[in-house]
């Protein structure tokens, strides 16, 4: 274990790889070793990564947001102050608010069954963070960047004035952004992508990819383009009046449905709802009762 589980990106800045290539229920983390304060960002890396950080010392844990994979192994790091963005506090501290925000409270899915083997950890936030806060760790600076869209209080982190940008779940994957929760917002996500791209960081780490240091601007552009690709896929499926139930499960947004399939299908449904709302506002789709009808095919094929 030890430092071999950490990857030094720059002096005193460490990438903490998540288990199973940082796939759910794991994520990548970031460990910052300041002269005065050692900070760990997120706690879903698994036993090896968490243990390596604890061996070096952790004075503070910052959660980028509330999702389970970012705190799935938080039980391994007790008695450390936990901070997050002010808008994320209720979803981290309350199981009921978490499932409401995720959209699962209205899904009809058995939440007790869903939680088996993945207990909701008891966490109390000791400080609320805000956009633009700068933490002096001693020889390292950490700027808090409010990056909503994925969740309301989702955070990114600028280390040492652009030396490294940790974008959390602005993951820059080919599939594009995930916003399949009720508290997610597509327009906020687009604004976040553009803001992070404009920061022109020299190196990027995300919660599920990285480190990245080549073609970074192009990655941000492709990530945003995936949102428009979903618009086009949905418009292409509207060859006649459709209900939402007619559109779910057709791989319009997700190329495959992995376990638990029922959860993934529900998240896809929420994303379809959000895109239909976008298209209605744009005048490209009209809604009549439960039916959605494409207004024009001109220039859309």
How would you summarize the topology of this molecule?
Blueprint: E1 7-10, E2 13-16, H1 19-22, E3 29-33, E4 38-41, H2 47-56, E5 60-62, E6 82-85, H3 89-93, H4 95-102, H5 111-115, E7 127-129, E8 134-136, E9 141-146, E10 155-159, E11 164-166, H6 186-198, E12 204-205, H7 216-237, H8 244-247, H9 261-281, E13 285-288, E14 291-294
Parallel strand pairs: 4-5, 5-6, 6-7, 11-12
Antiparallel strand pairs: 1-2, 2-3, 3-4, 8-9, 9-10, 10-11, 13-14
Helix pairs in contact: 6-7
Task: Give a description of the structure.
The strands form 3 sheets. Strands 1-2-3-4-5-6-7 form a 7-stranded mixed beta sheet, with helices on one face. Strands 8-9-10-11-12 form a 5-stranded mixed beta sheet, with no helix packed on it. A two-stranded antiparallel sheet has the order 13-14. The longest helix is centred in the last third of the chain and has 22 residues, at 216-237. 41% of the residues are buried. It is an alpha/beta fold and 301 residues long. The chain is 31% helix and 18% strand. β1 (7-10) and β2 (13-16) form a beta hairpin. It has helices spanning 19-22, 47-56, 89-93, 95-102, 111-115, 186-198, 216-237, 244-247, 261-281; strands spanning 7-10, 13-16, 29-33, 38-41, 60-62, 82-85, 127-129, 134-136, 141-146, 155-159, 164-166, 204-205, 285-288, 291-294. The chain folds into 2 domains: 2-224, Metallo-beta-lactamase, Chain A; 236-294.
């Amino acid at each position: 274990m030890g430092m071999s589980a950490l990857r030094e990106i720059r002096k005193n800045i460490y990438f903490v790889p998540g288990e199973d290539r940082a796939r759910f229920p794991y994520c990548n983390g970031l460990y910052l070793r300041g002269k005065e304060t050692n900070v760990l960002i997120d706690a879903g890396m698994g036993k090896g990564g968490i243990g390596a950080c604890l061996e070096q010392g952790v004075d503070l844990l910052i959660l980028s947001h509330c999702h389970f994979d970012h705190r799935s192994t938080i039980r391994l790091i007790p008695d450390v102050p936990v901070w997050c963005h002010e808008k994320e506090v209720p979803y981290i501290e309350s199981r009921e608010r978490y499932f409401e925000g995720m959209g699962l409270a209205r899904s009809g899915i058995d939440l007790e069954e869903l939680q088996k083997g993945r207990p909701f950890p008891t966490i109390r936030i000791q400080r609320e963070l805000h956009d633009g806060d700068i933490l002096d760790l001693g020889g390292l600076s950490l700027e808090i960047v409010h990056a909503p869209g994925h969740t309301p209080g989702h955070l990114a982190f600028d280390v040492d004035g652009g030396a490294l940008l940790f974008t959390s779940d602005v993951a820059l994957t080919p599939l594009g952004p995930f916003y399949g929760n009720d508290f997610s917002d597509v327009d906020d996500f687009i604004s976040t992508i553009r803001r992070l791209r404009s920061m022109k960081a020299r190196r990027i780490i995300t919660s599920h990819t990285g480190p990245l240091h080549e073609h970074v601007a192009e990655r941000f552009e492709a990530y945003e383009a995936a949102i428009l690709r979903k618009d086009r896929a949905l418009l292409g499926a509207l060859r006649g009046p459709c209900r939402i139930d007619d559109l779910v499960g057709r791989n319009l947004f997700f190329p495959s449905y992995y376990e638990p399939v029922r959860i993934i299908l529900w998240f896809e449904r929420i994303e379809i709802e959000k895109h239909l709302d976008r298209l209605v506002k744009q005048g490209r789709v009209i809604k009549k009762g439960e039916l959605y009808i494409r207004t024009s095919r001109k220039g859309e094929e």
